[in-house]
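Hey, I was hoping to borrow your eyes for a little while. I've been puzzling over a protein and I'd love to understand its fold better. The fold is given in discrete form, as structure tokens running alongside the sequence. I'd be grateful if you could look everything over and explain what you see. No rush at all, and the record is pasted right below.
>
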Amino acid sequence: MLATHRQSVFDSPAHRMPAFMAGKSIAVNTEERVYRLVAVSLPAGHGESERAVLALHRYAPLVEYLAQRMSDHEHPIRTTDELEGDAVRLAQRHGLSLDQVRRMLPRDARQSNSLLRPFVLRAVRGERIQVHVTNRTHLPLQVALLDDDFGIQQTTEPRMLTPDEIGLYSWQCKETGIFPIFNQACASSMPHRCLLGVLMIEP
């Protein structure tokens, strides 16, 4: 099952969009960019299994809030007063900006939300990034980067993260392009449900 998933992603022409710079060497930046992320489970839909999404650590409470609301099929819509109360509680409890929380909470939990889309990590060619991922799902998580033969992913084999475990990944951004990040432990037969995000390396 896992091999089938990996093959289907490699075969997709959109999985990477290279932008090679012929004749120019890669300048290695000694500074490191650090991403602190969490993986949170979204509830299963009709005929679909649960899926994991990545979010910035500070926004994890908002993603968990959205996941709870998505599970409540009988009350997907909040009134204005209910939504304001939710925003105030989340902002106060987690030290977030109230205005920002208000903008990120949907009135209807069935609406598309930017927090639930595949996460985009941005880096500059030659830069090294560190990615810390906390597994807040109740299932094993195996973060893997499809970097073809560029050697971006420094670890030889992605490690399986048990629930509440933290994984550290070091990626050397050697070439420009868009590189998918997926959950190698995902059991879904639909590759898009295993996609966690993308690493976008800019010139």
Observations:
- Residues 1-29 have pLDDT under 50 and may be disordered.
- The chain is about 20% helix and 30% strand.
- The chain has two domains: 2-57+113-202, 59-104.
- The CA atoms of residues 77 and 108 lie 4 Å apart.
